[in-house]
Amino acid sequence: MELTASAGRNVLLRDDGSWRYQDGSEKGKPVPKDAAGPMADLALERKIERITNCRLVRSLSNNLPYEIRQIVSYFSVYRANGVLHETQSAALHSIRPTDRTETTIDFSRVTCDDFARVQATGGNRCEMGELLKFSEASGQCVTRIRSVPTALARSNK
């Protein structure tokens, strides 16, 4: 998965739980999965066709040992030719450990078959564990969320 931190730096998150900054700086050196600990899982659950619109249903499963009090992400859909069609925001609140919640996001003037990729960005500021939305730890929220692969569409963060 790829995501953009609030400072504009690109972060690559791997399925094995490691991550690094895309610019290759030493500060973002890969972190082994066992050092990263538990993560929350973000997944694309369903695509629902709505005439000329598409509704996406995304889930977040909190596998962390603390509540995710708040996190706001942006979800973008891209057409097969790589062109960004639309971006929508989705806020999640009060997800207790072991809980799972679903969020629906409606994209207008695009059918579900018209897009090839969904990308989650943002989420750089949150309230979870020791992280507060105004703390210095910008970008740390997204390192605690893993994107679960799906056959519905290419999805990354």
What does this molecule look like?
The protein is an all-beta fold and 157 residues long. It has one domain: Sandwich (Immunoglobulin-like). The chain contains one helix and eleven strands. The chain has one helix at residues 33-36; strands at 2-4, 10-13, 19-21, 40-50, 53-61, 68-79, 84-95, 100-107, 115-128, 145-147, 154-156. The strands form three sheets. A four-stranded mixed sheet has the order 8-5-4-10, with no helix packed on it. A four-stranded mixed sheet has the order 7-6-9-11, with no helix packed on it. A hairpin with a 5-residue loop joins strand 1 (2-4) and strand 2 (10-13). The longest helix has 4 residues, at 33-36. It starts with a strand and ends with a strand.
Helix content: under 10%
Q: What is the strand arrangement across the widest sheet?
A: 8-5-4-10
Cα separation of the termini:
5 Å
Overall shape: it is globular
How many beta strands in the DSSP annotation? 11
* Low-pLDDT regions: 25-35
Query: How is the CATH topology named?
Result: Immunoglobulin-like
**Quaternary form:** single chain
User: How do the helices and strands follow one another from N- to C-terminus?
Assistant: EEEHEEEEEEEE
Count of alpha/pi helices: 1
- Examine the secondary-structure arrangement and name the CATH architecture: Sandwich
Whole-number total of structural domains:
1
Round the mean pLDDT to the nearest integer and report it: 79
